[in-house]
């Protein structure tokens, strides 16, 4: 996220004309001494001289002497108000401006400065009225128009503010600060190219103006012109090396480029320059999470929360990091705080983190809508902005029917990533006689064998990493994309703003995020009758496309390594091996409690887990000991770079124990493809029902427990029944079966695409597709 520095240049005060000083006027004495020996004009000039020299308190005293002798001179009140204003004594300054205006209703300077004080006092409407009165008296004063633009911007009247800045610049083409503020305003209107030109003008007038380089860097960053943006942030820092916000923005850009060590250095600088500001610590925490230094991440998150307890998403990000480390202290309090906050519309937890913490589709929808509200413009505001921009409009597209349906898949994960491993076969199997398939790829810059395969799988593979959301949406429109399919949702590196800009007439939420994206973004969500039962439809803003089998695709060309692993080389005993290769943040204390009871009741059994982080291993061993289980019965597997080899080693396990409320998704398919039975419990939310969807499609409903207690009982029962386990393994080895049939899956999905495409061209609004398949 690009952060801006609010109010770079706020309203200014006008000094007003300074009278010529007589010889010796700079001599300084006490106010009483001066008052006894000088005329009123000479006293007034002495006061102005003191004010000009920065001796504001003494000038105020002397202005007071003049006023005592002659209380009817408007300019004296005006000058004293300016001195009071300079000292931050705003209420007293306002009173003097009011006295000056009462004596001289045509005093435009006083009205202008009165407006600037009212702004600082938090009275924007009164400030605007004061500026309007000043402009009525003197429409040629550029500073008053500039000040008016400042208050209008604060009032979110962006078009009116822009008009005021334009007038100020027409009156004074050398007004560098007005060009800066105009550029900041154009950013608010998403007009980054125009903003850059405005900052260019400011820099041409004043090459030492750090705020212009900073503002231009923000626009370049938003337009994904990373190198140029980085250079401008660095120039701004060179000019103002003690401004924390500059390092914060540069750190954010470096973080987006995954130059994490450099980002850490900038965020550390932020915390030194602004030790009482929470954002630097929060950003440090986010980078340390990516670096898998969870102890450092948690410490920084906790510092941020201490400084700003209501800071946006800080509670959620801290709790997510603690879950990755399997650090569960305070979990109950955090969950209650998050649930209450989300119900109240507060920005406490992002929706993806919430899915792993609380099993509630209602809360999931609320969290999604809060996130979209915070991160991108809402659909109504966006429609207005698009019409203003003129580059890409209208919001609702009209597309002619064509011989082929043009599909656009948008993803940061068309590389060595679970999404790519699941979808590669789907993209290759699309019927090119009916569909034209385009990839819009963003995310980390990488070249790996899966990305090479992905490039070949599409008719057109477009790298849009260095293009803004607006440019990507415009490109999709130019390519006449009919269905824009988002494979990220709210997952890492997502580009949700593309869909807020309406990249295609039909937009679909698919695969990358297990839940609704909230109102106004997507038309459809690809699901099945298990993950979204009919009674839960109200928790989803999208209409549901119900696929006849599971919603989760699978690439049947996915090879398992021709290698047999021994338990000895994997550090496993010859007893019963339960396993779970889910990410550590999915393991809750309630699930772990059940796992430990299962181990206690199944003699000579172990639990084989994926080692996500070093902290996870240490903490889970402690938690096992607290529950009376020998910590050596937890076996942690190193990650294997080769996915075929990882799946091959899974065959050594006897039973996969699922997590909830966030189930195994891709990891569940890995286990089932390897022939390892998987036991799950189906909750309420999408994420908690995925494994049940897979098992239903595989024809193994007995592995879906109806309650956590039944889950625990079935695990013990299956561990005691090797014959039944063998039958389940043989059932999973049957090929082909719907769960692993890529061609079948692709044709079902294409039929759904055709149905919503036909519905659109018949003039019908989105509706649930294949609703009879919902349970």
Describe the structure.
There is one protein chain. The chain is α/β, with parallel strands linked by helices and 775 residues long. Among the domains are: 31-172, Tetratricopeptide repeat domain (Serine Threonine Protein Phosphatase 5, Tetratricopeptide repeat, Alpha Horseshoe), CATH 1.25.40.10; 399-547, Rossmann fold (3-Layer(aba) Sandwich); 567-740, 3-Layer(aba) Sandwich (Rossmann fold). Helix 28 (589-601) links the parallel strand 8 and strand 9. Helix 4 packs antiparallel against helix 5, helix 5 (90-103) packs antiparallel against helix 6 and helix 10 packs antiparallel against helix 11 (192-205). The longest helix is centred in the C-terminal third of the chain and has 20 residues, at 742-761. It is elongated and about 115 Å long. Residues 1-8, 16-37 and 378-395 have low confidence and may be disordered.
For the structure shown, list the relevant keywords:
about 775 residues, alpha/beta, Serine Threonine Protein Phosphatase 5, Tetratricopeptide repeat, Rossmann fold, seven-stranded parallel β-sheet, six-stranded parallel β-sheet, 35 helices, 13 strands, about 55% helix, disordered N terminus
């Amino acid at each position: 996220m690009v952060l801006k520095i609010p109010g770079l240049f706020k309203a200014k005060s006008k000094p007003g004309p300074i009278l010529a000083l007589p010889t010796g006027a700079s001599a300084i004495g006490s106010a009483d001494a001066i008052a006894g020996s000088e005329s009123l004009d000479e006293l007034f000039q002495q006061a102005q001289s003191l004010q000009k020299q920065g001796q504001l308190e003494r000038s105020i005293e002397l202005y007071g002497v003049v006023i005592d002798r002659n209380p009817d001179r408007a300019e004296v009140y005006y000058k004293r108000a300016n001195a009071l204003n300079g000292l931050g004594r705003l209420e007293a300054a306002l009173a003097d401006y009011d006295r000056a205006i009462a004596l001289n209703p045509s005093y435009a300077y006083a009205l202008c400065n009165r407006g600037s004080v009212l702004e600082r006092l938090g009275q924007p409407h009164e400030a605007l009225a004061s500026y309007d009165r000043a402009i009525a008296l003197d429409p040629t004063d550029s500073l008053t128009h500039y000040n008016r633009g400042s208050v209008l911007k604060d009032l979110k009247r962006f078009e009116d503010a822009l008009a005021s800045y334009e007038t100020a610049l027409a009156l004074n083409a050398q007004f560098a600060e007005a060009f800066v503020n105009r550029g900041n305003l154009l950013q608010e209107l998403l007009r980054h190219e125009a903003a850059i030109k405005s900052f260019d003008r400011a820099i041409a007038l004043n090459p030492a103006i750090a705020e212009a380089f900073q503002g231009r860097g923000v626009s370049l960053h938003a337009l994904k012109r990373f190198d140029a943006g980085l250079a401008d942030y660095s120039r701004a820092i060179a000019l103002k090396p003690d401004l924390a916000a500059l390092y914060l923005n540069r750190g954010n850009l470096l973080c987006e480029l995954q130059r994490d060590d450099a980002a850490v250095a900038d965020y550390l600088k932020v915390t030194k320059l602004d030790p009482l500001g929470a954002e630097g610590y929060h950003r440090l925490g986010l980078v340390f999470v990516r670096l898998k230094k969870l102890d450092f991440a948690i410490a920084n998150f906790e510092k941020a929360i201490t400084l700003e307890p209501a800071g946006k998403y800080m509670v959620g990000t801290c709790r997510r990091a603690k879950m990755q480390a399997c650090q569960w202290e305070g979990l109950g309090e955090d969950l209650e705080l998050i649930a209450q906050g989300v119900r109240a519309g507060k920005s406490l937890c992002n929706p993806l983190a919430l899915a792993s913490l609380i099993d509630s589709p209602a809360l999931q929808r609320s969290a999604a809508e809060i996130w979209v509200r915070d991160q991108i413009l809402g659909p109504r505001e966006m429609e207005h902005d698009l019409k203003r921009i003129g580059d890409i409009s209208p919001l609702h597209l009209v597309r002619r029917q064509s011989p082929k349906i043009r599909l656009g898949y948008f993803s940061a994960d068309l590389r060595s990533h679970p999404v790519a491993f699941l979808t590669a076969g789907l993209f290759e199997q699309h019927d090119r006689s009916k569909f034209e398939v385009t990839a819009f790829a963003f995310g980390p810059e990488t070249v790996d064998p899966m990305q090479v395969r992905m490039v070949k799988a599409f008719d057109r593979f477009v790298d849009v990493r260095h293009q803004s959301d607006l440019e990507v949406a415009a490109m999709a429109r130019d390519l006449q994309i009919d269905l824009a399919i988002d494979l990220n949702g709210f997952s890492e590196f997502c580009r949700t703003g593309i869909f807020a800009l309406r990249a295609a007439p039909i937009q679909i939420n698919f695969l990358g995020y297990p839940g609704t994206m909230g109102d106004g973004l997507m038309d459809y969500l690809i699901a099945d009758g298990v993950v979204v039962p009919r009674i839960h439809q109200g928790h989803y803003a999208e209409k549901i496309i119900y696929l006849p089998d599971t919603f989760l695709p699978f690439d049947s060309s996915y090879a398992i390594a021709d290698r047999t692993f021994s338990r000895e080389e994997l550090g496993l005993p010859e007893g019963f091996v339960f396993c779970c290769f889910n990410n550590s943040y999915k393991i809750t204390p309630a699930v772990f409690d059940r796992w430990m009871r299962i181990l206690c009741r199944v003699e000579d059994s172990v639990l084989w887990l994926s080692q996500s982080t070093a902290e996870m291993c240490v903490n889970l061993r402690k938690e096992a000991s607290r529950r009376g289980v020998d910590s050596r019965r937890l076996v942690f597997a190193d990650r294997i770079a080769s996915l075929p080899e990882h799946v091959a080693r899974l065959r050594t396990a006897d039973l996969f124990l699922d997590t909830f409320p966030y189930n195994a998704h891709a990891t569940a398919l890995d286990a089932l493809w390897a022939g390892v039975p998987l036991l799950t419990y189906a909750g309420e939310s999408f994420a908690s029902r995925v494994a049940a969807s897979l098992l239903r499609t595989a024809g193994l409903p007995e592995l879906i427990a109806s309650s956590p207690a039944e889950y625990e009982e079935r695990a013990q029962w299956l561990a005691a029944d090797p014959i039944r386990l063998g039958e389940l393994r043989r059932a999973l080895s049957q090929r082909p079966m719907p769960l692993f049939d890529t061609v079948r899956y692709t044709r079902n999905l294409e039929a759904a695409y055709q149905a919503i495409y036909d519905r659109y061209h018949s003039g019908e609004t989105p509706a649930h597709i294949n609703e009879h398949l919902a349970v």
